[in-house]
């Protein structure tokens, strides 16, 4: 047999259900916002990581170029000293 409940209890339960549904909607909206922001940050991090890798490669190439020039100058300086 069903349990009898008063009209006040039914009204209170309906109010609780409405409040919980609104809270759920708010939480779902917050979850969507946080998920969007997370995806945006992941995209930006990936972009910055790629930029960093390109800069690192450019720096490495420049460093190697300077070393080759330095080695070349050392060789030329040595040849000039031999001729003196």
From TrEMBL:
Residue ranges of coiled coil = 3-37
Q: Tell me which domain of life the UniProt entry assigns to the organism this sequence originates from.
A: Eukaryota
Keyword annotations for this protein, in alphabetical order, are: Coiled coil
UniProt-recorded name of the protein: Uncharacterized protein
Organism for this UniProt entry: Trifolium medium
